[in-house]
Amino acid sequence: MTERLTRRRLNRATLARQLLTARAELSAEAVIEQVAGVQAQDPEPPYIGLWNRIDGFRKEDLATLLEVRSVVRATLHRGTQHLVTAEDYLWLRPTLEPMLRVWRKGAFGRLTAGVDLEDLAEDARSELSGRIVPRPELGRALAARRPGHDPVALARSVQALLPVLHPPPDGLWGRRGPTPFALAQDWLGRAPADAPDPARLVRRHLAAFGPATVKDVQAWSGATRLREVVEELRPGLREFRGEDGEELFDLPDAPLPAEDLPAPVRFLALLDDVVLAHADRSRLMTAERRRHLVVEPALLVDGFVRGLWSLAREPDGRAELTVRLFSPLSRREREETAEEGAALLRFAAPEADRHAIRFTPAG
User: Fold this and answer.
1) What is the pLDDT of residue 293?
2) Is the distance from CB of 226 to CB of 195 less than 8 angstroms?
3) Is the peptide bond before 211 cis (omega within 30 degrees of 0)?
C-alpha cells in the first residue's frame, strides 16, 4: 500500500530541503544550488533568503559570487528573475525556453504585434555582442528599427528570445537603476546546452521541494506537459499519497523527516520560492493567507505562515520591523519571533541608529 503523508510531514520535508529547519554551514553558491535557485525580482530579497539559510552569511558573500560570475541573475522560472549558479543556468535556460516564449507572448504579445521575433532576436544579439547594454538603451535601439512599438516591450521580449543575463551592479544589495543586459555566452564564456533537460528539471524540484505532484513542479517552473516526463521517471521515484489522495513523487534517497522535527521562526524573503513552489500550498499556509504573499513577505512560526512582515527605515534614523499576525502567538512563540526579528534588523539595517519591533494584527 502506498504510504500517506500528512501535510505536516510534507511541511517538514520541504523546510528541511530548503534549509529552513536549521542554518547550514555551507557556501552561498552551494545553497543556491541545493534550493534550486533563489527568487530575485528585487535586489534585497535574495540576501534575506540566504541569510535565513546560512550560518554567518554576509552580504558580500553573494555580491562576490555575482562579480566572479559563479552565480547569475536571469529571467527563468515562471518568467521571473532568479539567481542560479552558472552551471545550472547552462542547462536550465534551454529547458525553460518554451515556457519563456509563452510568457513573452502573454506579457508583451499585444505590444509587439507584427514584429518578426527572429529579426528582433538577431538585432538584439548584434546590439549586445561583446557589450553590456542597459535595458533602456537596448529598447531604444530596437525601437529605432520598429517605429511605433514600445521600447520596453521590445527589450523585455529579448529576455525570452535570447539567453541573456543581468550582470552586476544588478543584483547587488541596495542597487537601483537600469537593468544591464549581456549575452550569456559572452558573460560566461560558454554557450547554454543545445537541448532541454526536463527530467533534470523534475528531479531538481523534487530534491529541493518534494515530495510533490506533477502540478507542483509545473507551478514552480512555469513549464507544462511534465506528466509524461514524470511517467518516464516513475520507475526510479518513490510514490506517496497526500491527505487528499493526491499522487506525490520523490527521489528515492531524499530526506523525509518526522513531522515533529522542530522548525524555528523564519522571516522569509519576499516571494521566497518555498511559498511559491507548489500548486497546492497547504503544506505551508491556508488558502486565505496565500493571497497576501505576492505583495508581502511571510513569517513562518512552527513551519507555517502565521503572519507578514515589513521593514521601514524612518527619517529619525530608526529601523522598525512590523510583524502583522494572522493569529495570536503564544508567549514562547512571540519571544522567539522577537529574537529572530532583532537578528534580521541587525542584518538588514545595521546602519540604523535604533531598532524597533512592532506586532499588530493582520486585517
Assistant:
1) 75
2) no
3) yes
